[in-house]
Amino acid sequence: MLRVLIVDGLRAVRNQLSERLSFEGYTIDTVESIEECSKFGAESRYDVTLCDSAEVGQRLGIPFIVVAHNSSVDTIITAFRRGAYDVVPMPVDMNIILDALRRLATQIEQRIPEPVRAVRCKHTFSVDPIVGDSTPIRRVKYLIDRVAPSEARVLVVGPNGTGKELVARWLHEKSSRSGGPFVEVNCAAIPSELIESELFGHEKGAFTSAIKQRRGKFEQANGGTLFMDEIGDMSLSAQAKVLRALQERKISRVGSDKDLDVDVRIIAATNKNLPEEIQQGHFREDLYHRLSVIVISVPPLKERLDDIPQLVAYFADKICEEYAIPVKRIDTEAIALLKQMPWRGNIRELRNVIERLIILSGEQITAEDVRMYVESPAFA
After folding, report:
1. For 238, left (φ over 0), alpha (ψ -120 to 50), or beta?
2. Among 64, 125, 293, 320, which one has the highest count of C-beta atoms within 10 angstroms of its own C-beta?
3. H or E element in which residue 284 lies
């Protein structure tokens, strides 16, 4: 696990991050300001810092993620230009932070010499299972098994929270590229001014804040898989550059006239209807056809309600293990109530609900707990 230093002026933020990341198994230290960091030897003891400003991250000289108290566009752009690995706006979404740390851990692992990596491989990230046996989810599993061994590009579609990233990870895991890197990029989270640098990298001096050469996501994923999430939110100019990279299997860093060969399998995902976006002039039709050799549609939870008992059992086991408490079971009446809910947030919402019930309920989760802590207006 990564060694994480949290630098934030707000005690509540430090405590929130520290408690959750400690539960996840990370080694954590917290400080209020940059002036306190020297006593920890942050430049040598830590793999990453979570900090409240890009200035702090730059001064420490280690990979940093900015927890932005001010999430204006200018703040986000400045953070990325100063080298932030990711920017997470307030209020903090722990799922985003955990995802960023997991991606960073994967990249650090790729830089470890092979003999050392072989010793540590037993402790690296493993892919969560796709839980459920309903007809829609069986079809998703079937398509993964059929498509993964090929080099075909895949477009994963479905509403937010359905598990599109998990499908992408299994496509990578079951492919011949599983020994290579799996690199993610959230196209919606990167300002349009920075997308080209993020995807293709830049040379030192390419623009004002380019103080050193940087490898982009395509280079980082060389020999493996590049997962382009929320691709429907990418600007048209960035789409044109991605299309060229797919057609020619070459990229060029910002500020360079040299082409670099890349061997990358692209898996894209979106919650948008791309044919409609094409009709409205928001998405390139030629790029759509490049990306959608295979389309895997991930069903919303309301279309796979029969999977809820298995999903609840899986999340309950996992969450209780994270909290180091005895596993709590849920009675059949409570399950029946959960199956009646609309689940607009899909699997992500279900996991959050189960975590809430585990925290607030007694030894067993009952229907009354569901009525009190899920259906109650205070928790709606």
Report:
1. alpha
2. 64
3. none
Q: pLDDT tens, 189-199?
A: 777 777 778 88
In whole angstroms, give the CA distance from residue 157 to residue 145. Answer: 17
Please, which residues bridge with residue 194 across strands?
none
Tokens found for residue 365: 């989760």
C-alpha–C-alpha distance, residues 79 and 58, integer Å: 10
What per-residue confidence (pLDDT) applies to 113? 45
pLDDT-based confidence at residue 214 (cuts at 50, 70, 90)? confident
pLDDT one-digit tens code per residue, 342-360: 999 999 999 999 999 999 9
Characterize the bridge pairing of strands 260-261 and 265-270: unpaired
Residue type, 324: A
pTM: 0.66
pLDDT band for position 209 (cuts 50, 70, 90): low
Angle between the N-to-C axes of helices 332-339 and 308-322, in degrees from 0 to 180, rounded to the nearest 10: 110
Q: Say which residues have a Cβ less than 8 Å from residue 65's Cβ, sequence separation at least 6.
A: 48, 49, 50, 51, 57, 84, 85, 86, 87, 88, 97, 100, 101, 104
Q: Which of 30, 27, 26, 28 is nearest to 10 (CA)?
A: 30
